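User: quick one - fold this with zinc ion bound?
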Amino acid sequence: MKTAKIKNSNWELPIRKIVCVGRNYVEHIQELGNEVPEKPVVFIKPTSSLIYSGDKIIYPEFSQDMHHEVELVLLIGRTIKNADKQTSEDAILAYGVGLDMTLRDVQNQLKQKGHPWTIAKCFDTSAVISDFILKSDYQLKLDEEIFLKVNGVFRQKDSLAKMMFKPAELVEYVSSLMTLEEGDLIFTGTPKGVSKVNKGDKLEAGLSDLVSLNCSVE
Ligand code: ZN
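Assistant: Sure. Structure tokens for the protein plus zinc ion:
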């Protein structure tokens, strides 16, 4: 069973489901030529896609264009459904940083056909997570930065202030669609700067200096 590891603690929570949000930063929507949505775009990853800092991201044989997407990740701490804004905020237990690895060539083909994004988003090693910092230890101000470096060079670096839908709004919206439970993760979308990774690349991501992860691509 995959778990979310709490920073500076021996506490680990079993991870139940991974809900991902697409199109939450305007400049990223523009770089892919998509329309700005009125509601967040929502999809799911399986827990079999999860790996941790220090693990290897494996290039699937059915893609030649795997992209990095660095994202703020929310760890949910209680069961909620149709929650209001305050209950949604209270349900966020901890924050992490994650990579939503995406097969852009496969995704573009699926989009053209109007098919779900499953094959482009759910492959093994497609969800990388850091440790999580408890909200009781650090209250997010939304002026923090998420960043991703490839081989030591910044590719993504943006303030969380640029999120169109803020964490509590995302939790509120997702809880109107499906029950959220303790141990669920929400990937909150990526800022601009997504690009292709190659075998041998070393990836490093962080949420300011709060949490971080390192991975190589094979
Ligand atoms: Zn994403």
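One thing worth noting: The chain has five helices and 17 strands.
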